Amino acid sequence: MTTDQPKPALRAVVPCDPGPTCVGRFAPSPSGPLHFGSLVAAVGSALDARRGGGRWLVRIEDIDGPRSQAGADRAILRELERLGFVWDAPPVWQSRRTELYRAALDRLAAAGRTYGCACSRRDIADSAPAVDGARRYPGTCRAGMAAGRTARSTRLRVDAGETDAVVRLVDRVQGEIVQNVECEVGDFVLAHADGQIAYQLAVVVDDAAQGVTDVVRGADLLDSTPRQILLQRLLGVPTPSYGHLPVALDRSGDKLSKQTLARPIADVPAAQILCATLEFLGQAPPADLRRAGVREVWVWAAQHWNLSRVPRLRGLPAPAQWC
Length: 323
Ligand SMILES: [Zn+2]
Prior knowledge:
By secondary structure, the chain is α/β, with parallel strands linked by helices. Strands 1-2-3 form a three-stranded parallel β-sheet. It has a three-stranded antiparallel β-sheet with strand order 4-5-8. Strand 1, helix 1 (about 35-50) and strand 2 (about 55-60) form a beta-alpha-beta unit. It has eight helices and twelve strands. It has helices spanning about 35-50, 70-80, 100-110, 180-185, 200-210, 225-235, 270-280, 295-305; strands at about 25, 55-60, 90-95, 115, 155, 165-170, 175-180, 190, 215-220, 240-245, 245-250, 315. The protein has one domain (about 1-323): 3-Layer(aba) Sandwich (Rossmann fold), CATH 3.40.50.620. The structure holds zinc ion. Zinc ion binds near residues 117, 118, 119, 140 and 141.
């Protein structure tokens, strides 16, 4: 195990690792220190992968430049190490893999599935709300941008005459989800004019390139999963299985995040915070496990992990001391 930087010569193609049967991953964005909310996804994904006898990977999702905080990636990895996490390959950084995303974007463009869009956020402010609280894109530039306007983004042509805009998935925690991406989201952004690749595309390319078979993450990403499945179909890569864990909520019912000033967990004894996370995930660790060693906690957790005990909710209040 190492937190060393990976070699710059990354695998240059999307096709998947044959690998063992189960590959899970944890993909934090380095916008601040690890907090209870992100730890829930780390613990859930690691135990789920191990339970299936598989591998577990860490990926730093740092292409969202402005939100990334210098040094936060290293701090997160150090904190994971302190808590006894072991990853099976050197972590990867999205910011060092942009050529992979670019290649995928080029393929979609070559297939006629993309177009330039000149609309600002304000231009679409009157459109219907999208499933994730943003605005549904009304297709203004689908047939070409108005004269004199320049592209601010590249969008995916979601509905190109086939029925593939309807995505059905059976989430391992949340159950069946059906979404008509065309009606509920519209043509969505794949890249911005400054070259920044959108999360939806990057995550699909990364999961495929890393051979991820089992995605376990926070339920705040559930509504964007159909977009990712649509992209997987268009790029011809496998769709992993998905399990969306309840998101940890603060006292006002908002997602616990660096922005809501979630308490860093760095000062908390490892066994204590791991047990609190297991409890949050419905795993009912015995009370005395909190005083055990880190290793002992992981041994208990690996033996008892059961995804079907995770509450089938999109959000749950975090224990008061971590808000
Ligand atoms: Zn537009």
